[in-house]
Amino acid sequence: MKKWLVASSFLLLLTACGTDDEGTADEPQDDSDQDTVEETEDMDDDEGDDDEGSTVLDENDEGVTVLAEDLETPWNIEENDGTFYITERSTGEIVHVTEDSQESYPVEFSDELYTEIEAGLMGMALAPDFDETNEAFIYYTYGDEDEAFNKVARVAFDEEEGVWTEEDVLLDEIPGFRIHSGGRIAIGPDDLLYVGVGDVDEIHGQEGDTEGAMIAQDEDSYAGSILRMNLDGSVPEGNLEEDSHVYTYGHRNPQGLTWGEDGTMYATEHGPTGHDELNIIEGGNNYGWPVIWGDGEEEGMESPLAHAGKNTWAPSGVDYLDGNLYFTALAGLGVNEYNIETGEITQIVSGFDRVRDVMITDDSMYLLTHNTDGRASGHDNDDRLVQLNLDDVLAGNFQNEDADLKNDEDVESGAEHEEELHDEDSEEDADEDSEEDEEDAE
């Protein structure tokens, strides 16, 4: 990957953040840059009380159409012949949305769905022959808090019964956890299925606290990787090893996958305490986590195409259009535009809502809000699938001048949530130890 692109994109966006954004495991950053945040996605983001500057796009706004409402933790958008298919992480249902209807259909999983915090039904990709087969591929978490895994499965929709049924398992026992499971899947221009998997790190993978996250550097583990497989689940040529689904490794929590018109693959990735990333994905590469992040460099490891520095995007879904990447910002409350040629980043939709996924067509940008995940109070009728007129988006008509990319204070504000998670774990461990002591005493 071009190292000069990393520097140029960083300078264009983040000159106000200072230059001390290099991170390595052996040389941790200054204390001012060591915020203990579980993940940029997990932050409070000042959304708890409908933060100032946040707007609600509705039917009364020019260029806006609300296609679906009252969605529950929606995660992924797919579309075919005018029907949208939306996965709901916590309910395990798939919502079908047309111009004049909205119906939710259950999924019959072969293993029990596990939905704590970030786990559940996440990615979905319609099969190339969906018109004939009604088949799709999904990525979901199963098991329980003691032992969780992720799975890639093929499902089929029965129109008469009104149910999606798991028909085949492409790959199971992928490392899973209540956080950092990745979740995005997509079929590439090579007709292969790509899967983003997080480092499933129990200690939350913070800077200077990376022992658990080192699994992302294990070439034999599927954690912290982007997997690549044939549509029957078999291993294609060109992966890291001939018998492995691992395509790239050294990832923290990749949640967005897309391709440019020249076939270049891009991915979004959640970073620690800011330092969210955009990466060019090339087979066999090591993307560094948790050894390096931000502007850190190490021989044999790839630095990002761009990163957020001390700011945070909490990026998830991403799409490509005319030399630009458009990626969602859960913490940034909108959509960012990244110009691949210049490295410039613009918040093209701002002051909006937590946005989980984005899809672009010839004349529209579709956004999937994500306020019902417990990290924001949201608004009436959340969550929603919103259609924006693409010309209005590109003209900057959905930019809120009062909103800006999240700053250092916003990053630090997430420490409270992280402390709560650690406190909960500590209390549970203490209770378990107490029970064990009582049993020993008896």
Write up this protein:
This protein is mostly beta strands and 442 residues long. It has a single domain (3-441), classed as Neuraminidase. 12% of the residues lie in helices and 35% in strands. It is built from five helices and 26 strands. The strands form six sheets. The protein has an eight-stranded mixed sheet. Strand 22 and strand 23 form a beta hairpin. The radius of gyration is 21 Å and the shape is globular. Residues 1-20, 26-53, 203-208, 404-430 and 432-442 have low confidence and may be disordered.
SSE blueprint and pairings:
Blueprint: H1 3-14, E1 22-24, E2 64-68, E3 74-80, E4 83-88, E5 93-98, E6 101-108, E7 121-126, H2 130-133, E8 135-143, E9 148-158, E10 163-175, E11 185-187, E12 193-197, E13 225-229, E14 246-249, E15 254-259, E16 265-269, E17 277-281, E18 292-294, E19 306-307, E20 315-321, E21 324-329, E22 334-339, E23 345-349, E24 355-360, E25 364-369, E26 385-389, H3 390-394, H4 408-413, H5 415-441
